[in-house]
From TrEMBL:
InterPro entries: Acetyltransf_17, Acetyltransferase_Eis, Acyl_CoA_acyltransferase, Eis_dom, NAcTrfase_Eis, SCP2_sterol-bd_dom_sf. Residues 327-425 form the Enhanced intracellular survival protein domain. Residues 202-321 form the Eis-like acetyltransferase domain. This is Uncharacterized protein. Transmembrane segments: none annotated. One of its GO terms (molecular function) is aminoglycoside N-acetyltransferase activity. PANTHER family: N-ACETYLTRANSFERASE EIS. Acetyl-CoA binds at V104, T105, V106, R112, Q113, G114, L115, L116, R117, S140, E141. GO terms for biological process: aminoglycoside antibiotic catabolic process.
Protein backbone atom coordinates (compact mmCIF):
# COMPACT_ATOMS: atom_id res chain seq x y z
CA UNK A 1 0.00 0.00 0.00
CA UNK A 2 2.87 2.35 0.84
CA UNK A 3 3.80 2.88 -2.81
CA UNK A 4 0.24 2.99 -4.13
CA UNK A 5 -0.66 5.98 -1.97
CA UNK A 6 1.14 8.99 -0.63
CA UNK A 7 0.08 11.02 2.43
CA UNK A 8 0.45 14.80 2.34
CA UNK A 9 -0.19 17.18 5.22
CA UNK A 10 -0.71 20.90 4.80
CA UNK A 11 -2.54 23.95 6.14
CA UNK A 12 -5.27 25.91 4.40
CA UNK A 13 -3.50 28.54 2.30
CA UNK A 14 -4.39 32.19 1.66
CA UNK A 15 -6.74 32.76 -1.26
CA UNK A 16 -4.02 34.11 -3.52
CA UNK A 17 -1.35 31.59 -2.54
CA UNK A 18 -0.19 29.11 -5.21
CA UNK A 19 -1.24 26.05 -3.20
CA UNK A 20 -4.75 27.32 -2.41
CA UNK A 21 -6.16 24.77 -4.89
CA UNK A 22 -4.77 21.90 -2.81
CA UNK A 23 -7.09 22.86 0.04
CA UNK A 24 -10.10 23.32 -2.21
CA UNK A 25 -9.55 19.88 -3.80
CA UNK A 26 -9.28 18.42 -0.32
CA UNK A 27 -12.55 20.08 0.69
CA UNK A 28 -14.40 18.77 -2.34
CA UNK A 29 -13.21 15.26 -1.41
CA UNK A 30 -14.58 15.73 2.12
CA UNK A 31 -17.91 16.89 0.71
CA UNK A 32 -18.05 13.85 -1.55
CA UNK A 33 -17.36 11.54 1.41
CA UNK A 34 -20.31 12.95 3.33
CA UNK A 35 -22.64 12.96 0.30
CA UNK A 36 -22.82 16.75 0.10
CA UNK A 37 -23.63 18.59 -3.11
CA UNK A 38 -20.61 20.18 -4.72
CA UNK A 39 -19.99 23.50 -3.01
CA UNK A 40 -19.70 26.76 -4.92
CA UNK A 41 -16.27 28.37 -5.19
CA UNK A 42 -17.51 31.21 -2.99
CA UNK A 43 -18.60 28.81 -0.24
CA UNK A 44 -15.28 26.97 -0.43
CA UNK A 45 -13.51 30.32 0.01
CA UNK A 46 -15.50 30.97 3.17
CA UNK A 47 -14.74 27.53 4.57
CA UNK A 48 -11.04 27.93 3.85
CA UNK A 49 -11.02 31.28 5.64
CA UNK A 50 -12.61 29.62 8.69
CA UNK A 51 -10.08 26.78 8.52
CA UNK A 52 -7.26 29.29 8.59
CA UNK A 53 -8.69 30.86 11.74
CA UNK A 54 -8.81 27.42 13.37
CA UNK A 55 -5.29 26.66 12.11
CA UNK A 56 -6.43 23.27 10.92
CA UNK A 57 -4.04 20.72 9.56
CA UNK A 58 -5.40 18.94 6.50
CA UNK A 59 -4.24 15.45 5.58
CA UNK A 60 -4.88 13.96 2.15
CA UNK A 61 -4.05 10.55 0.71
CA UNK A 62 -3.18 10.66 -2.98
CA UNK A 63 -2.74 8.00 -5.64
CA UNK A 64 0.88 7.84 -6.73
CA UNK A 65 0.50 5.96 -10.02
CA UNK A 66 -1.67 6.69 -13.04
CA UNK A 67 -5.33 7.20 -12.22
CA UNK A 68 -7.97 5.38 -14.25
CA UNK A 69 -8.85 7.20 -17.50
CA UNK A 70 -11.73 9.69 -17.03
CA UNK A 71 -11.71 9.22 -13.23
CA UNK A 72 -11.02 12.00 -10.74
CA UNK A 73 -7.54 13.48 -11.14
CA UNK A 74 -4.61 12.41 -8.94
CA UNK A 75 -4.64 15.73 -7.09
CA UNK A 76 -8.08 14.99 -5.62
CA UNK A 77 -7.32 13.00 -2.46
CA UNK A 78 -8.87 9.55 -2.11
CA UNK A 79 -8.93 10.00 1.66
CA UNK A 80 -9.10 12.99 3.99
CA UNK A 81 -8.43 13.67 7.66
CA UNK A 82 -8.51 17.05 9.39
CA UNK A 83 -7.27 18.16 12.81
CA UNK A 84 -7.38 21.22 15.02
CA UNK A 85 -6.50 21.83 18.65
CA UNK A 86 -8.64 23.39 21.34
CA UNK A 87 -9.11 23.15 25.10
CA UNK A 88 -11.33 20.54 26.72
CA UNK A 89 -12.89 21.28 30.12
CA UNK A 90 -12.02 18.16 32.15
CA UNK A 91 -14.00 19.22 35.22
CA UNK A 92 -13.74 21.94 37.85
CA UNK A 93 -12.71 24.39 35.13
CA UNK A 94 -9.47 22.59 34.34
CA UNK A 95 -8.43 22.69 30.72
CA UNK A 96 -6.61 20.07 28.69
CA UNK A 97 -5.29 20.84 25.21
CA UNK A 98 -6.98 18.33 22.92
CA UNK A 99 -6.24 17.10 19.42
CA UNK A 100 -9.57 17.16 17.57
CA UNK A 101 -10.04 14.84 14.60
CA UNK A 102 -12.61 15.62 11.92
CA UNK A 103 -13.46 15.29 8.21
CA UNK A 104 -12.44 11.64 8.00
CA UNK A 105 -13.37 10.19 4.63
CA UNK A 106 -12.14 7.43 2.35
CA UNK A 107 -13.46 7.34 -1.21
CA UNK A 108 -15.74 4.32 -1.61
CA UNK A 109 -13.55 2.81 -4.33
CA UNK A 110 -10.53 2.83 -2.01
CA UNK A 111 -12.17 1.73 1.24
CA UNK A 112 -11.15 -1.16 3.47
CA UNK A 113 -7.56 -1.10 2.37
CA UNK A 114 -6.30 0.31 5.63
CA UNK A 115 -6.27 4.02 4.71
CA UNK A 116 -8.18 5.13 7.80
CA UNK A 117 -5.97 2.97 10.00
CA UNK A 118 -2.86 4.45 8.43
CA UNK A 119 -4.05 8.07 8.75
CA UNK A 120 -5.24 7.57 12.32
CA UNK A 121 -2.15 5.81 13.64
CA UNK A 122 0.26 8.25 11.97
CA UNK A 123 -1.74 11.22 13.23
CA UNK A 124 -2.06 10.02 16.81
CA UNK A 125 1.63 9.11 16.87
CA UNK A 126 2.52 12.66 15.80
CA UNK A 127 0.13 14.24 18.33
CA UNK A 128 1.58 12.13 21.13
CA UNK A 129 5.12 13.03 20.06
CA UNK A 130 4.15 16.68 20.34
CA UNK A 131 3.12 16.09 23.93
CA UNK A 132 -0.67 15.99 23.67
CA UNK A 133 -2.38 13.70 26.17
CA UNK A 134 -5.85 13.69 24.60
CA UNK A 135 -7.50 13.30 21.19
CA UNK A 136 -11.23 13.67 20.48
CA UNK A 137 -13.79 13.25 17.74
CA UNK A 138 -17.50 12.99 17.09
CA UNK A 139 -18.35 9.85 15.15
CA UNK A 140 -20.57 9.22 12.13
CA UNK A 141 -21.00 5.58 13.17
CA UNK A 142 -20.54 3.91 16.55
CA UNK A 143 -18.58 0.97 15.16
CA UNK A 144 -15.51 2.71 13.72
CA UNK A 145 -13.39 4.26 16.46
CA UNK A 146 -13.36 1.90 19.46
CA UNK A 147 -10.64 -0.12 17.72
CA UNK A 148 -8.44 2.96 17.77
CA UNK A 149 -8.87 3.43 21.53
CA UNK A 150 -11.62 6.07 21.48
CA UNK A 151 -14.37 5.76 24.09
CA UNK A 152 -17.72 7.53 24.39
CA UNK A 153 -17.25 10.26 26.99
CA UNK A 154 -20.44 12.36 26.68
CA UNK A 155 -23.92 11.85 25.26
CA UNK A 156 -26.71 14.08 24.00
CA UNK A 157 -30.31 13.69 22.91
CA UNK A 158 -33.04 15.33 20.88
CA UNK A 159 -36.04 16.90 22.58
CA UNK A 160 -39.44 18.18 21.51
CA UNK A 161 -41.01 20.47 24.05
CA UNK A 162 -44.76 21.03 24.13
CA UNK A 163 -45.10 24.78 24.59
CA UNK A 164 -48.90 24.72 24.62
CA UNK A 165 -51.04 25.54 27.67
CA UNK A 166 -49.40 22.97 29.96
CA UNK A 167 -45.93 24.51 29.51
CA UNK A 168 -44.76 26.38 32.60
CA UNK A 169 -41.58 26.60 34.65
CA UNK A 170 -41.25 26.85 38.43
CA UNK A 171 -38.83 29.70 38.10
CA UNK A 172 -39.10 33.36 38.97
CA UNK A 173 -37.10 35.33 36.40
CA UNK A 174 -34.18 37.34 37.65
CA UNK A 175 -33.18 38.73 34.27
CA UNK A 176 -34.79 39.67 30.98
CA UNK A 177 -34.92 38.45 27.39
CA UNK A 178 -34.92 40.63 24.29
CA UNK A 179 -34.93 39.95 20.57
CA UNK A 180 -31.81 41.05 18.72
CA UNK A 181 -30.57 41.15 15.17
CA UNK A 182 -29.02 37.73 14.50
CA UNK A 183 -25.74 39.36 13.45
CA UNK A 184 -24.94 40.42 17.02
CA UNK A 185 -24.08 36.78 17.64
CA UNK A 186 -20.94 37.14 15.55
CA UNK A 187 -19.48 38.99 18.53
CA UNK A 188 -21.63 37.80 21.43
CA UNK A 189 -21.79 34.06 20.77
CA UNK A 190 -18.06 33.43 21.42
CA UNK A 191 -18.16 35.61 24.56
CA UNK A 192 -21.13 33.80 26.06
CA UNK A 193 -19.81 30.42 24.98
CA UNK A 194 -16.49 31.13 26.69
CA UNK A 195 -18.30 31.51 30.02
CA UNK A 196 -20.32 28.34 29.44
CA UNK A 197 -17.19 26.47 28.49
CA UNK A 198 -15.48 27.42 31.75
CA UNK A 199 -18.46 26.06 33.72
CA UNK A 200 -19.16 22.87 31.83
CA UNK A 201 -17.20 19.62 32.09
CA UNK A 202 -16.95 17.98 28.67
CA UNK A 203 -17.07 21.27 26.79
CA UNK A 204 -14.58 21.86 23.98
CA UNK A 205 -13.78 25.35 22.70
CA UNK A 206 -15.67 25.95 19.48
CA UNK A 207 -14.29 26.29 15.99
CA UNK A 208 -14.80 29.47 13.96
CA UNK A 209 -17.75 28.02 12.02
CA UNK A 210 -19.99 28.20 15.09
CA UNK A 211 -20.38 31.94 15.34
CA UNK A 212 -20.80 32.15 11.56
CA UNK A 213 -23.51 29.47 11.54
CA UNK A 214 -25.48 30.48 14.63
CA UNK A 215 -25.59 34.11 13.50
CA UNK A 216 -26.85 33.01 10.08
CA UNK A 217 -23.83 34.64 8.43
CA UNK A 218 -22.82 31.40 6.75
CA UNK A 219 -25.78 29.04 6.49
CA UNK A 220 -25.79 25.39 5.47
CA UNK A 221 -25.55 26.28 1.78
CA UNK A 222 -22.88 28.92 2.36
CA UNK A 223 -25.27 31.86 1.96
CA UNK A 224 -26.75 34.14 4.59
CA UNK A 225 -29.50 32.32 6.46
CA UNK A 226 -32.26 34.89 6.78
CA UNK A 227 -34.44 32.42 8.68
CA UNK A 228 -32.29 32.61 11.81
CA UNK A 229 -33.68 34.58 14.71
CA UNK A 230 -31.97 35.51 17.94
CA UNK A 231 -32.95 36.27 21.53
CA UNK A 232 -30.53 37.42 24.20
CA UNK A 233 -30.73 36.94 27.93
CA UNK A 234 -29.56 39.79 30.22
CA UNK A 235 -28.75 39.30 33.88
CA UNK A 236 -30.01 41.72 36.52
CA UNK A 237 -27.06 44.02 35.75
CA UNK A 238 -27.84 44.07 32.04
CA UNK A 239 -24.95 41.83 30.96
CA UNK A 240 -25.69 39.35 28.19
CA UNK A 241 -25.20 35.91 29.73
CA UNK A 242 -27.13 33.70 27.33
CA UNK A 243 -28.62 33.51 23.87
CA UNK A 244 -30.78 31.32 21.72
CA UNK A 245 -30.50 31.16 17.95
CA UNK A 246 -33.59 29.61 16.40
CA UNK A 247 -35.65 29.10 13.26
CA UNK A 248 -39.33 28.73 12.49
CA UNK A 249 -39.90 25.34 10.82
CA UNK A 250 -42.57 26.76 8.46
CA UNK A 251 -46.35 26.74 8.25
CA UNK A 252 -46.32 23.25 6.72
CA UNK A 253 -44.88 21.73 9.92
CA UNK A 254 -47.57 20.92 12.47
CA UNK A 255 -47.71 21.49 15.33
CA UNK A 256 -46.13 24.86 14.52
CA UNK A 257 -42.52 24.48 15.57
CA UNK A 258 -39.46 26.51 16.41
CA UNK A 259 -36.15 24.69 16.00
CA UNK A 260 -33.33 25.69 18.32
CA UNK A 261 -30.11 26.17 16.35
CA UNK A 262 -28.00 26.96 19.41
CA UNK A 263 -28.85 27.56 23.05
CA UNK A 264 -25.98 28.77 25.21
CA UNK A 265 -26.54 30.00 28.74
CA UNK A 266 -23.82 30.91 31.21
CA UNK A 267 -26.04 30.70 34.30
CA UNK A 268 -28.85 28.45 35.47
CA UNK A 269 -31.22 31.42 35.44
CA UNK A 270 -30.31 32.33 31.86
CA UNK A 271 -30.99 28.77 30.75
CA UNK A 272 -34.42 28.59 32.36
CA UNK A 273 -35.39 32.10 31.26
CA UNK A 274 -34.45 31.40 27.66
CA UNK A 275 -36.75 28.39 27.87
CA UNK A 276 -39.46 30.60 29.35
CA UNK A 277 -39.00 32.84 26.34
CA UNK A 278 -39.13 29.89 23.89
CA UNK A 279 -42.26 28.65 25.62
CA UNK A 280 -43.94 32.02 25.17
CA UNK A 281 -43.51 32.50 21.42
CA UNK A 282 -46.93 33.23 19.93
CA UNK A 283 -48.40 30.82 17.36
CA UNK A 284 -45.84 28.16 18.31
CA UNK A 285 -46.83 24.90 19.99
CA UNK A 286 -43.53 23.05 19.93
CA UNK A 287 -39.82 23.80 20.35
CA UNK A 288 -37.32 21.20 19.19
CA UNK A 289 -33.61 20.97 19.97
CA UNK A 290 -31.27 18.27 18.72
CA UNK A 291 -28.25 19.05 20.95
CA UNK A 292 -29.99 18.85 24.32
CA UNK A 293 -28.24 17.63 27.46
CA UNK A 294 -29.10 14.18 28.74
CA UNK A 295 -29.29 15.45 32.30
CA UNK A 296 -31.42 18.52 31.64
CA UNK A 297 -32.54 21.01 34.34
CA UNK A 298 -35.42 21.99 32.02
CA UNK A 299 -37.23 18.74 32.80
CA UNK A 300 -36.99 19.36 36.53
CA UNK A 301 -38.01 23.00 36.27
CA UNK A 302 -41.20 22.27 34.33
CA UNK A 303 -44.44 21.97 36.29
CA UNK A 304 -45.27 19.11 33.95
CA UNK A 305 -42.05 17.27 33.07
CA UNK A 306 -43.90 15.35 30.37
CA UNK A 307 -43.84 18.46 28.21
CA UNK A 308 -40.42 17.16 27.18
CA UNK A 309 -40.41 14.29 24.71
CA UNK A 310 -36.83 13.01 24.47
CA UNK A 311 -35.51 10.74 21.75
CA UNK A 312 -32.33 9.63 20.03
CA UNK A 313 -30.11 9.43 23.11
CA UNK A 314 -26.71 9.09 21.45
CA UNK A 315 -22.97 9.22 21.89
CA UNK A 316 -21.51 12.66 21.36
CA UNK A 317 -17.88 13.25 22.35
CA UNK A 318 -15.39 10.41 21.93
CA UNK A 319 -12.05 10.74 23.70
CA UNK A 320 -8.74 8.99 23.06
CA UNK A 321 -6.16 9.13 25.82
CA UNK A 322 -2.64 9.34 24.40
CA UNK A 323 -0.79 9.65 27.71
CA UNK A 324 -2.37 8.12 30.82
CA UNK A 325 -0.10 9.94 33.26
CA UNK A 326 -0.70 13.29 31.55
CA UNK A 327 -4.47 12.87 31.24
CA UNK A 328 -5.04 11.52 34.75
CA UNK A 329 -2.75 14.17 36.20
CA UNK A 330 -4.72 16.94 34.48
CA UNK A 331 -7.91 16.09 36.36
CA UNK A 332 -9.05 17.30 39.74
CA UNK A 333 -10.50 14.62 42.01
CA UNK A 334 -13.32 15.49 44.43
CA UNK A 335 -12.51 12.72 46.92
CA UNK A 336 -9.24 11.37 48.23
CA UNK A 337 -8.21 7.86 47.33
CA UNK A 338 -5.72 5.60 45.62
CA UNK A 339 -6.43 3.37 42.67
CA UNK A 340 -4.12 1.16 40.68
CA UNK A 341 -5.33 1.14 37.09
CA UNK A 342 -4.24 -1.45 34.55
CA UNK A 343 -4.69 0.05 31.08
CA UNK A 344 -4.56 -1.96 27.86
CA UNK A 345 -3.74 0.01 24.75
CA UNK A 346 -3.51 -2.05 21.54
CA UNK A 347 -1.91 0.92 19.75
CA UNK A 348 0.74 1.27 22.47
CA UNK A 349 0.28 4.94 23.35
CA UNK A 350 -1.07 4.92 26.90
CA UNK A 351 -0.92 1.35 28.22
CA UNK A 352 0.60 0.24 31.51
CA UNK A 353 -0.21 -0.01 35.20
CA UNK A 354 -0.58 3.34 36.93
CA UNK A 355 -1.02 4.45 40.52
CA UNK A 356 -3.51 7.28 40.81
CA UNK A 357 -3.22 8.89 44.23
CA UNK A 358 -5.60 11.80 44.89
CA UNK A 359 -5.22 14.08 47.92
CA UNK A 360 -7.01 17.36 48.42
CA UNK A 361 -8.12 17.41 44.79
CA UNK A 362 -4.64 17.05 43.31
CA UNK A 363 -3.41 13.82 41.81
CA UNK A 364 -0.05 12.15 41.75
CA UNK A 365 0.13 9.66 38.92
CA UNK A 366 3.01 7.27 38.47
CA UNK A 367 3.85 4.06 36.67
CA UNK A 368 3.42 1.15 39.10
CA UNK A 369 6.34 -1.14 39.89
CA UNK A 370 6.41 -4.35 37.84
CA UNK A 371 4.06 -7.07 39.09
CA UNK A 372 1.77 -4.58 40.92
CA UNK A 373 -1.76 -5.96 40.80
CA UNK A 374 -4.28 -3.39 39.53
CA UNK A 375 -7.51 -2.63 41.40
CA UNK A 376 -9.24 -2.16 38.05
CA UNK A 377 -8.20 -3.14 34.55
CA UNK A 378 -9.69 -1.79 31.38
CA UNK A 379 -9.06 -0.86 27.77
CA UNK A 380 -7.80 2.67 27.13
CA UNK A 381 -11.20 3.41 25.50
CA UNK A 382 -12.95 2.68 28.81
CA UNK A 383 -10.60 4.96 30.70
CA UNK A 384 -11.62 7.66 28.20
CA UNK A 385 -15.29 6.90 28.89
CA UNK A 386 -15.02 7.34 32.66
CA UNK A 387 -12.57 10.26 32.41
CA UNK A 388 -15.12 13.10 32.34
CA UNK A 389 -17.39 11.54 34.93
CA UNK A 390 -20.24 11.05 32.45
CA UNK A 391 -20.01 7.27 32.25
CA UNK A 392 -20.19 5.25 35.46
CA UNK A 393 -17.35 2.76 36.10
CA UNK A 394 -19.78 0.52 37.99
CA UNK A 395 -21.89 0.31 34.84
CA UNK A 396 -18.83 -0.49 32.71
CA UNK A 397 -17.96 -3.20 35.22
CA UNK A 398 -21.48 -4.60 34.88
CA UNK A 399 -21.03 -4.51 31.10
CA UNK A 400 -17.88 -6.60 31.42
CA UNK A 401 -15.69 -3.80 30.08
CA UNK A 402 -13.95 -2.94 33.34
CA UNK A 403 -12.56 -5.80 35.45
CA UNK A 404 -12.63 -5.19 39.20
CA UNK A 405 -9.86 -7.03 41.06
CA UNK A 406 -10.32 -5.20 44.39
CA UNK A 407 -13.92 -5.26 45.68
CA UNK A 408 -15.42 -1.76 45.69
CA UNK A 409 -12.78 -0.28 43.35
CA UNK A 410 -15.29 0.52 40.58
CA UNK A 411 -17.42 2.48 43.03
CA UNK A 412 -14.31 4.23 44.35
CA UNK A 413 -13.50 5.20 40.74
CA UNK A 414 -17.06 6.52 40.33
CA UNK A 415 -16.55 8.81 43.33
CA UNK A 416 -13.08 9.92 42.30
CA UNK A 417 -13.96 10.70 38.67
CA UNK A 418 -17.15 12.62 39.55
CA UNK A 419 -17.35 16.23 38.33
CA UNK A 420 -19.18 19.27 39.63
CA UNK A 421 -22.09 19.20 37.18
CA UNK A 422 -23.39 16.96 34.42
CA UNK A 423 -20.89 16.90 31.53
CA UNK A 424 -22.22 18.15 28.22
CA UNK A 425 -20.44 19.04 25.00
CA UNK A 426 -22.08 21.74 22.89
CA UNK A 427 -19.39 21.61 20.21
CA UNK A 428 -19.87 19.39 17.17
CA UNK A 429 -16.85 19.14 14.91
C1 LIG B 1 -14.36 11.90 12.96
C2 LIG B 1 -15.15 11.79 11.71
O1 LIG B 1 -14.88 12.48 10.76
S1 LIG B 1 -16.42 10.67 11.63
C3 LIG B 1 -16.71 10.40 9.89
C4 LIG B 1 -16.19 9.10 9.39
N1 LIG B 1 -16.44 9.06 7.94
C5 LIG B 1 -17.54 8.56 7.36
O2 LIG B 1 -18.42 8.02 8.01
C6 LIG B 1 -17.63 8.73 5.86
C7 LIG B 1 -17.96 7.42 5.14
N2 LIG B 1 -17.03 6.33 5.45
C8 LIG B 1 -15.71 6.35 5.07
O3 LIG B 1 -15.23 7.31 4.48
C9 LIG B 1 -14.85 5.12 5.36
O4 LIG B 1 -15.62 3.97 5.20
C10 LIG B 1 -14.21 5.12 6.77
C11 LIG B 1 -13.39 6.38 6.94
C12 LIG B 1 -15.26 5.03 7.87
C13 LIG B 1 -13.31 3.87 6.90
O5 LIG B 1 -12.20 4.01 6.04
P1 LIG B 1 -11.37 2.73 5.51
O6 LIG B 1 -10.12 3.22 4.88
O7 LIG B 1 -12.26 1.86 4.73
O8 LIG B 1 -11.00 2.00 6.88
P2 LIG B 1 -9.79 0.97 7.08
O9 LIG B 1 -9.64 0.13 5.84
O10 LIG B 1 -8.57 1.65 7.54
O11 LIG B 1 -10.39 0.10 8.25
C14 LIG B 1 -9.78 0.02 9.51
C15 LIG B 1 -10.61 -0.93 10.34
O12 LIG B 1 -11.87 -0.34 10.62
C16 LIG B 1 -12.93 -1.17 10.16
N3 LIG B 1 -13.98 -0.27 9.67
C17 LIG B 1 -13.84 0.71 8.78
N4 LIG B 1 -14.99 1.36 8.61
C18 LIG B 1 -15.89 0.76 9.43
C19 LIG B 1 -17.25 0.99 9.67
N5 LIG B 1 -17.93 1.97 9.06
N6 LIG B 1 -17.87 0.20 10.56
C20 LIG B 1 -17.18 -0.81 11.18
N7 LIG B 1 -15.88 -1.06 10.97
C21 LIG B 1 -15.24 -0.28 10.09
C22 LIG B 1 -12.31 -2.02 9.10
O13 LIG B 1 -13.00 -3.21 8.92
C23 LIG B 1 -10.92 -2.22 9.66
O14 LIG B 1 -10.97 -3.20 10.68
P3 LIG B 1 -9.69 -4.09 11.06
O15 LIG B 1 -8.52 -3.16 11.18
O16 LIG B 1 -10.07 -4.75 12.31
O17 LIG B 1 -9.50 -5.01 9.90
Amino acid sequence: MADKYEIRRFRAAEKDAPDYARGTDWLQAVGFGFHDSRRSDEFVDKIMAMYRRDDRELTGVYQTGDVAPHSLAADIPVATFGTLRKDLNVGYGRQLRTHMVTAVTVRGTHRRQGLLRRMMTEDLTAAKAEGLAMAALTASEGSIYGRFGYGVATSERSIKVDTGPRFGLRHVPSGTVEIADRKVLLELAPEVFERVHRNTPGSIVRQEAYRQNVSGTIGRDGNEDEGIKCALHYDADGTVDGYVSYKFAGWDTKPYTVEVVDLVAATDAAYLELWQFLGSIDLIQRVSWSDAPVDDPLVWALSDPRCVEASDHRDMLWLRILDSVGALGARRYPVDGTLVLGIEDPLGFAGGTFILDARGGEATVSAAPTDTQPDLSMDVADLASIYLGAVCPVTLKAAGRILEHTPGAAHQAQLMFAVERAPHCLTHF
